[in-house]
Design brief:
This protein has about 110 residues and is mostly helical. The chain has helices at about 10-20, 25-35, 35-55, 60-65, 70-80, 85-95. The chain folds into 2 domains: about 1-35, no CATH class; about 35-105, Trp Operon Repressor, Chain A, CATH 1.10.1270.10. Helices cover about 70% and strands about 0% of the residues.
């Protein structure tokens, strides 16, 4: 994150997230912090990033996740030119052998 985007307030949030010790604790925290839609949107973006890494095409990602092509394009830009956040998280999920959930959402 560029220095101008960093702040003590965001540091506090990220430190709080790093204290969570289980998926259940994450559910509780994020349910309190975010709307259900916000959490679902973040989850879809992560799946979209994984699908792009798997060389899936935008139309298939849209069909399965409901993400817009604009959002998929942004994710793709982050994968190619971003700070590596998606790549780090996806690599660690892979190392832990945590599979991407199967999505079969059709419009």
């Amino acid at each position: 994150m560029p220095k101008e985007n960093k702040s003590a307030l965001k540091d506090y949030l990220f430190q709080a997230i790093l204290t969570l010790e289980s998926v259940d604790e994450c559910y509780d925290f994020f349910e309190d912090l975010c709307t259900i839609k916000e959490v679902e949107d973040m989850a879809k973006r992560l799946c979209g990033a994984k699908m792009l890494k798997e060389n899936m095409v935008y139309t298939d990602i849209t069909d399965q996740t409901g993400l817009s092509t604009a959002t998929i394009s942004r994710i793709n830009r982050c994968l190619k030119h971003g700070k590596g956040g998606y790549t780090t998280a996806l690599r660690r999920l892979e190392n832990e052998q945590i599979e991407r959930p199967a999505l079969n959402r059709k419009r």
